[in-house]
Amino acid sequence: MMRIGVLASGRGSNLQALIKDWKQGGLIAEIVAVGSDHEEAKALQHAQEAEIPNRAFPHKKYPSRWEQEKALLSWLQEQRIELLVLAGYMRVLSKEFLKKLRIPVLNIHPSLLPSFPGLHAQRQALDYGVKLTGCTVHFVDEGLDSGPILLQEAVPVLPEDTEDTLADRILEVEHRIYPQAVRLIASGQVERVGRTVKILDL
Ligand code: GRF
Predict the structure, then answer these.
(1) 26 Cα: distance to centroid of ligand 1 (angstroms)
(2) Which of 22, 127, 173, 175 has its CA 20 to 30 A from that of 165?
(3) Is 129 helix (H, G, I), strand (E, B) or coil?
(4) 89: CA distance to ligand 1 center in Å?
(5) From the CA of 87, how far away is ligand 1's center (Å)?
(6) What angle do CA 58, 61, 64 make, to 5 degrees?
(7) Which atom of ligand 1 is nearest to the CA of 12?
(8) Ligand 1 pocket by C-beta < 6 Å: which residues?
């Protein structure tokens, strides 16, 4: 079983989808650590309820960004994780952190990247007037939502959509493709060649 760590800053619905998939035997992996930069994050409660070791690393408790990342890094390393999954983690991880962690890091973003990176991706899609948006699972590099893409799925934008209705429909897809992405990695079906990510048949 691949040992997985998850970082989440807030509500944690993607974390819940991953926990559900794992507990139902879908993930060939186990979630062994959940970290957050917010003590009150709902995600930590979900972890607690699922009896997963969890810890908050609030920025205000550390003298610098790097000190916070160092504490997080050593905790994740103690849990011997092999894959780090960002599920609504609202901080960009530094180049140093990624270099020292030395394992793949995944993120999910609510748009079809490279369109609409950064905050409020659903709002950006509505403001632009696109007819299709969606979500993207990608490997994390030092940029903002810029790493190699593993999975994407489109979601139509409806004329009556608000930011909330669109976000909800995208979220349903997120909850399906994020566990799928983790399963693909855990089963060794993912091969990265530069920016291109290949999915191999078993
Ligand atoms: C999701 O929309 C995800 O795509 C983005 O942050 C949000 C997290 O939601 N990165 P949740 O905390 O998983 O409910």
Answers:
(1) 21
(2) 22
(3) coil
(4) 8
(5) 6
(6) 95
(7) 12
(8) 8, 10-14, 87-88, 108-110, 171, 174
Q: How many CB atoms are located within 10 Å of the residue 37 CB? A: 21
Q: CA nearest 66: which of 94, 90, 38, 89?
A: 94
Tens digit of each residue's pLDDT, the chain (202 residues):
999 999 999 999 999 999 999 999 877 899 999 999 999 999 999 999 999 999 999 999 999 999 999 999 999 999 999 999 999 999 999 999 999 999 999 999 999 999 999 999 999 999 999 999 999 999 999 999 999 999 999 999 999 999 999 999 999 999 999 999 999 999 999 999 999 999 999 8
Residues labelled as active-site residues: 109
pTM for the whole structure: 0.97
